[in-house]
Design brief:
With about 525 residues, the chain is an alpha/beta fold. It has helices at about 10-20, 40-45, 70-85, 95-100, 105-110, 130-145, 175-185, 200-205, 220-230, 245-260, 265, 275-280, 295-310, 325-335, 345-355, 365-375, 400-425, 445-450, 485-490, 495-510, 520-530; strands spanning about 25-30, 55, 90-95, 115-120, 160-165, 190-195, 210-215, 235, 290-295, 315-320, 340, 360, 375-380. α9 (about 220-230) links the parallel β7 and β8 (about 235). Keywords: 4Fe-4S, ATP-binding, Bacteriochlorophyll biosynthesis, Chlorophyll biosynthesis, Iron, Iron-sulfur, Metal-binding, Nucleotide-binding, Oxidoreductase, Photosynthesis.
Length: about 525
């Protein structure tokens, strides 16, 4: 465990909370100290849920550590069952309570409650949030799915599937689910169970009735789907339908398992992304340098959309999901780059600076990093903030999701160009802030206004600083920018400004120059332009 200002994932019990909060009739008793109830805010404030998560905390205090904390836990479990009457319960410990070693599973079994009680062993000092969600869902499926069910031949009935993976606090999971249901309905495929989101423990007992499983979010559902494949002989589809191409592959894979014709659905692609990619306007985006970082599911999918469907050039790809590092590294190798596998945001910031992209697609942390570096950014993955849980329908999956992605990826570049043009012409004598709008003409009011304006005194030019070589520790520091050089840098288009700044600072650092002047900026431009 590492102490840090930002973190991409919480401890594994947060992942367990995401599963419990997504389901109905399930209650989570968490052995945790007073203060760990902060996790409720993730759902009520950020996701804006109307009710708090179904979690009971023991909230023991420091003074309780000298007494029997096990009794506190047993009392909390009994009280939670009496009050909420759940169909099933899960029990576990937070990272702090894990150190006490009270064995929540054994204590809960000793109560002999009349409902299933599933213990969770979530090593908080080795694993993170997504692993915790995956392990919780896997344990629930193993405990509740029951015995294999006999399924009649597919030709005699409507094929059916389970949709696995969506959780509470998931990035666009609610909206993605709506799009996937629409696609399945058009294919004539019934949905047997959606889990964890909206499912009850009783629903999990019916998982074996479906013909196959759809894994929308492998970080959460792959382990459970592999168990169902082995136990119930249910094949799985793990094609993530993000982007037009991936949605087509998803439809083809699902149709093959269901033994239905995908042609009518494939013939009606309700997305504007392919049209734009073929239009003359898309030439503005062709070859734009993009850096992608997020959870493995979204990072891989968005990288493919950016390169294969919008013509971007991938200069950086990474994930904090270490369990999927192999897949991300393989995708990065296809583009001739090295993947960034880390959960340290400072490493990600350094990678972004080194790659000098024109667009960053990442999490809310990359949003802050890109803002500081002056690079356009769009959020495509958790962790996310309240603005990434819009009240409107805004999926990432399916053909409508491709439309949303088109806006998400294109608009930052288009708006960045507009901002650059406004900044470039801000000091123009005709278009500066004090000038009247050009469509009003050159009437008398404009002349009067011009006469009344008193010209400002020109700024004092900074005293020239000789380019003296600097030695020692100061030689590795970034030289400061002179005002006129900084002003000239802002005239460079935003999508290459970061690279120009990095190259100039490197030029000055290698020559041990104490100040970056206008002349040094031009010298660096000439040097790297050879």
């Amino acid at each position: 465990m590492q102490l840090t200002v930002w973190t991409y994932e919480g401890p594994p019990h947060i992942g367990a909370m995401r599963v419990a909060t997504a389901m109905e009739g399930l209650h989570y008793v968490l052995h945790a100290p007073q203060g760990d109830t902060y996790a409720d805010l993730l759902f009520t404030m950020i996701e804006r849920r109307a009710k708090r998560p179904p979690v009971t905390y023991t909230t023991f205090q420091a003074q309780d550590l000298g007494r029997d904390t096990a009794a506190i836990f047993k009392d909390a479990v009994a009280a939670a069952y009496t009050r909420f009457q759940p169909q099933a319960m899960i029990v576990g410990a937070s990272c702090t309570a894990e150190l006490i070693q009270d064995d929540p599973g054994g204590l809960a079994r000793a109560l002999d409650l009349p409902v299933p009680v599933i213990p969770l062993e979530l090593p908080a000092y080795q694993k993170k949030e997504n692993w915790g969600a995956s392990e919780t869902f896997y344990r629930l499926v193993r405990a509740l799915a029951g015995a294999p069910a006999e399924r009649p031949p597919q030709g005699t009935r409507r094929p059916s599937c389970n949709i696995l993976g969506p959780t509470a606090l998931g990035f666009r999971h609610r909206d993605d689910l709506i799009e996937i249901r629409r696609l399945l309905d058009r294919l004539g495929i019934a949905v047997n169970v959606v889990a964890p989101l909206g499912a009850s423990p009783a629903d999990l007992t019916r998982l074996g009735e479906a013909d196959f499983n759809l894994v929308l979010y492998p970080e959460v559902a792959r382990s459970a789907a592999l168990y169902l494949e082995k136990t119930f002989r249910q094949p799985l589809v793990d094609v993530v339908p993000i982007g037009v191409g991936a949605t087509r592959r998803f439809i083809e894979a699902v149709a093959a398992l269901a033994e239905v014709d995908p042609a009518p659905v494939l013939a009606d692609v309700a997305s504007r992304l392919p049209w734009y990619s073929r239009s003359v306007d898309s030439t503005y985006l062709t070859g734009k340098r993009v850096f992608v970082f997020g959870d493995a599911t979204h990072a891989l999918a968005i990288a493919r959309v950016a390169t294969q469907e919008l013509g971007f050039r991938l200069v950086g790809l990474g994930t904090y999901s270490r369990e999927f590092a192999r897949e991300v590294r393989a995708e990065a190798a296809l583009h001739g780059i090295e993947a960034t596998i880390t959960d340290d945001y400072l490493d990600v910031e350094a990678a972004i600076q080194a790659a000098a992209p024109e667009l960053v697609l990442g999490t809310q942390m990359e949003r802050h990093i890109a803002k500081r570096l002056g690079i356009p950014c769009a959020v495509i993955s958790a962790p996310i903030h309240v603005q990434d849980f819009p009240a409107r329908h805004s999926p990432q999956m399916g053909f409508e999701g491709a439309n949303v992605l088109f806006d998400t990826l294109v608009h930052p570049l288009m708006m960045g160009l507009e901002e650059h043009l406004l900044g470039m012409f801000r000091d123009d004598p005709e278009f500066h802030d004090g000038a009247a709008p050009s469509h009003l003409g050159h009437g008398p009011n404009r002349k009067a206004d011009a006469l009344e304006r008193v010209p400002e005194a020109p700024p004092l030019a900074p005293a020239p600083v000789p380019a003296i070589n600097v030695q020692g520790a100061d030689a590795v520091r970034t030289a400061p920018w002179a005002p006129e050089a900084e002003k000239e840098l802002k005239k460079i288009p935003f999508f290459v400004r970061g690279k120009a700044r990095a190259n100039t600072e490197r030029f000055a650092r290698e020559r041990h120059l104490p100040l970056i002047t206008l002349e040094i900026l031009y010298d660096a431009k000439a040097h790297f332009g050879r």
